[in-house]
Structures are given as C-alpha cells and as structure tokens.
C-alpha cells in the first residue's frame, strides 16, 4: 500500500508524465490516431521521451500496449484509446484505466475506483504465504480455512485460493465493510473461478462485515489462517499523499484509525485474544512453521504492531518480513 515505491529514479508525478508521453507516442505514431500532429514531429518528440523514460515506465507502457493489442483495436476503438490517454494525463491511475491488474497467479483481476489497487508488496507477501501453506501439511481430513479481513478487490483471498486448491481443499472467506468492494471481489471470484467449471469441494466467498463489529464464529470461525491488509496510513500522512492515490482511492481503504493509524491491528489483536478467531493447530501441523496470522504494515509500524500482538499474551512467534525494497512490510505470526 506504500506510495513511496523503490526502484525508480523519478518522482511519481514525473514518472506518470513520462508514461503518458510514451503512450501518447504509441497513439500518435504506432496507433495511427489522427491528432493533427505530424509523424515527423511526433517521432522527434518520442526520441526525447524514450531517452528520458525509466525502466518502470517502459514496463507500464509495454503492459498498456499489450492490453491494447489484446483488445484488437480497430476503427472507432481508437477513440477509446485516445480517451485512455487523456485519463492518464489527468492523473487517473493506469490500473483503473485498464480496469484490471495481474496479481500472483491471477492474470486479470478487475479493479475499479475507489477500491484499492492491489500493490506489488502485497502480492509479494501473499506469494510467500501461499508457498508456506502449500509446503506445510494441513489436517488431511479437513479443508484449510482462511479468513481475509479488509479484502478489497479480493486479491489476497483469490490468490491464496488459486494456489491452494491445486494442492488441497481450501475454504477462503473475504470480508470488507464496503459493499462496492464486496461486489467487486465477488465479481472477480465469479470470472476467475466460474462456478460451473468448479470440480473441487473448495470454496471462496465474500461477505460484507465491519471489522469492529463482527463475531468470528458467526462468519464460520475459527480459522487456520487469518490475513489482513488493513487501512494503516495515519491521517496526517494521507494528506500528503500524491493526487493519484488521494483523489482516486477510497480514503477509508487507506487511513487507519488513531493518531498512529494502528487501530485495525489493535482490533485484530483483541479478536485473537478473545478466542473464536484462530483454530488451534492440529497435532499433525504442530511444530511446522505454518503462519497463523499475516498482516501488512506501514513502513515504520512493524515493531509497534509486533508489540500490540505480543501484548495479547497469546503464544505467537512473530517474524518481521521485509519486501524486495528492504522495507519492513508484513508480520508473519506462528503458533508457538
Ligand atoms: C488497504 S485496503 C486492502 C484491500 C486489499 N486487501 C488489498 O490488499 O489490496 C483496506 C480495505 O479495508 C476495508 N475496510 C475499511 N474499514 C473497514 C472496516 N471497519 N471493516 C472491514 N473492512 C474495512 C476497505 O474498504 C478496504 O477495502
């Protein structure tokens, strides 16, 4: 969920500007849209753009061009391209313009404003968790039960479901307070895993629920694994976010309650403490490093969140996991 993304030398507004210019070049030169700008002028401009654009920009443009090819653009659809270009130059996030993002094993996960666009760092820890769950033996007679709190587009739940069902029976439930998010997650489930094609007993479902007002048992708990990427940005930091995030993505998906933005972790820790949320590991699974809880955290929150969970007195080993940019990005918690 971070916006300060590593790896690129450019600030995000400048980076987006470059991407927009490069897509403009595609439309003007390769796409053949008649804009009144001569090819000579466009090519001259494109050379300048190409030399300036950074690697990440090139990737995004390639991604966009692939999307355009996949849509077999012809005739009147060029107008649609032009409109995509204009939306990009106005600062709309590329993922919303394309309408989908890849996430782990999911090639096309639908996204739409204002539901949070899944972030690469979330994808990274989700992939790690999936590998760990696949490697650890689940109780043979039962499905592994997973709860995804604050599910948004359903990216984490659907990705885990996709991975796990190839290996074992899984029951995945995603909850979100936002009705629009739940509708989107359900639509994603339906298009990625059409019910008529399902041959396994595995299930994935999404329900509307407020994390501050729900009882784990009433939604089917306890669960073997609970994951959560909650809103965690403190209000004063949200106010400084770049426009592409602040003006387009739901504030309620980003801002965590309290001065430090840690309100959701406190609530989750209280749920863990009160019981009914986590299933005790079976004797078969004991001793294996199978995460029971995974939460994503803000870049400077890992230790504070670890203390919140330690304070519950529930026996958990807590590992702070760093993402590809060496940022403390998630806590993996294991039954002791
Ligand atoms: C940071 S987004 C995470 C979305 C998705 N899991 C992801 O990783 O892309 C947080 C989500 O929490 C949801 N949310 C906000 N307040 C909530 C609450 N009180 N109870 C449940 N969900 C809530 C928002 O609607 C949003 O979809």
From TrEMBL:
The keyword 4Fe-4S does not apply. It comes from the Eukaryota. Keywords: Methyltransferase, S-adenosyl-L-methionine, Transferase. Gene3D superfamilies: Vaccinia Virus protein VP39. Residues 142-229 form the Methyltransferase domain. Transmembrane segments: none annotated. One of its GO terms (cellular component) is mitochondrion. One of its GO terms (biological process) is methylation. GO terms for molecular function: nucleic acid binding; protein methyltransferase activity. It holds the Pfam family Methyltransf_31. The keyword Methyltransferase applies. NCBIfam families: hemK_fam (TIGR00536). This is S-adenosyl-L-methionine-dependent methyltransferase. It comes from Acaromyces ingoldii.
